[in-house]
Amino acid sequence: MNHQWKFFRAGGFDQVNLETSTDLQNLKNLDQKLWVALSCPTTGIEFDARTLALIDSDADGHVRANELLAAVDWATERLADVSVLAQGLSGVPLAAIQGEAIIAAAKDVLPTGGTMISVELASGAEAAWLSASAAAMPLGDATEAACAAVAAVKEKIDDYFVRCRLANFDVRASDAMNVAEDTFKALGATALAADAEGISVLPLSKVSATPVGAADTPSQPPQLRLDSGINPAWVTHIATLQSAAITPLLGARANLSEADWQSVQDKLAVYRDWQAAKPAGLPPEAQAVKDLERLARYVRDLMPLANNFVAFRGFYTRTSKAMFQIGTLYLDGRSAELCVSVHDAAKHAALASLSRLYLAYCECTRPGEKMQIAAAFTAGDVDQLMVGRNGVFYDRQGRDWDATITRLAEHPISLRQAFWLPYKRLARMISGAMQRMSAARAAGVDAQMGASATGLTTSAAKKIETPTAAPAGPPSAFDVGKFAGIFAAIGLAVGALGTVAAGVISGLLGLKWWQIPLAVGGLMLLISTPSIIIAWFKLQSRNLGPILDANGWAVNARARINIPFGTSLTQLAKLPEGAQRSLSDPYAEKRTPWTFYLTVILLALVTYVWFTR
Q1: Residue 285 contacts residue 109 (beta carbons within 8 Å)
Q2: Which residue has the higher pLDDT, 484 or 135?
Q3: Which residues, in sequence order, are bridge partners of residue 571?
Q4: Residue 29 parent element (H or E)
Q5: Could you give the CA distance from residue 68 to residue 35 in angstroms, rounded to a whole number?
Q6: Which of the four pLDDT bands, split at 50, 70 and 90, describes residue 461?
Q7: How many C-beta atoms lie closer than 10 Å to residue 541's C-beta?
């Protein structure tokens, strides 16, 4: 029977609604073209890093669709009650587990009367097991193989060193401790194999008495040569012992003394004792403890992960923060909630600019820590957003960071901003031109004053030095033509502006009184319409995908951010409901009587038009 899926419309596209454990189990049957994302990074997002690492089976730093599906299947196989996957639990109930090994591990972990193995409890059990195993396992996971290699040859090596001690006790025992010639003759009469029983019972290596030194030189202890002279039936076992135990514990060597052999056994004895003791709460089955922690994490995290991966449910329904939202930036009297982690602002901006969102890249710092973020501003204006401005960033743990804007990716924020944009640009252009002209004029005046002062100083000095010098020639004549040309040009400019203004005013005055506001509004709309049209197309094409793709996501849908939804992502400052507000400001600037000035200008223009008819 086919599973009946439920979808909801958000962001301009259909997203699957994941609510039940059955939905999770059937994810493998849902066409991946309907998934919002097919891959996400394991870092730079707000999600349990340990859980993501467990799901990331190839440890490449990304969780992909197939790895998420494999995690769901793994959890389903170990749950007697799969419905716990959708219950938002903090771990896994004991009654919901199936599998003898995991159940045994869970019972050892649970306190008396407990029924729920939380993620913290399971993680603590694994950490305790690892701590205990680290002391008991000098070679880590290879300790068990080393113990097996020692056990396989222990009796034979012990036998060899006892024979050597007997040979040292009495040199006459040397021949008796080795193989009699008749034994070799008997073996030679039959077909032999290296592991034949008749060969394996022979001594491990040839026994000989070690030479005795002088009175002040002790005899050398017996040595077992590891690379040659070994009984053929035991060559493979000795090679395994050397690679699995001797070299890792003692270092590479060609000979093994009896003291070395005892040292190897002593180093591995703690593991054998630990295995025999089976400490309470720490089952010796390491895999069962690891599986218990994995299961507890999957029960808690698989459903939230799917709703941040297969669908962006929390983000678009505004019921919870998405895992790519790492915090909130407070700056310029507003809070930006769509903030993502960034590793390289320049590289991120190259792709993220295609999102058509206004992005402010900030460097965030706190004692001993530093990170970069990109914050989307989707409400308000951009007049005061500039590189170098400071704000405060609060991460999802509630920690505050100093934030400084380092880069801006500029796009329209709203249609209101687009309407006033031409006038603001004109005001900035006029203001800039006036400031440049004033600065140039001031510089010219300063230069003339400096030149005059220099001239006066030089003239006075010359008079002092040569009082009888001939009088200076007459001063240069005032160039009337030059200044007449300048004044004529200024007059033409003023006249042109006056003509334009007069034409506009005369046209307005030729209308009826009720037509004048309509004409002014139409003129403003005519000026602002191109800016509004461009902004409208950009606002309609805003897309979350490029912002996440620039961070390593594989967003599979056109995740639109329309105007109403985008506005909700940036909160503007507003007074609390019921707050009392006093409008009296003792330090307010005096208002300029613009009404008076406008009236004078209008009267002057009307008079001009009247007398020029």
Answers
A1: no
A2: 135
A3: 335
A4: none
A5: 12
A6: low
A7: 14
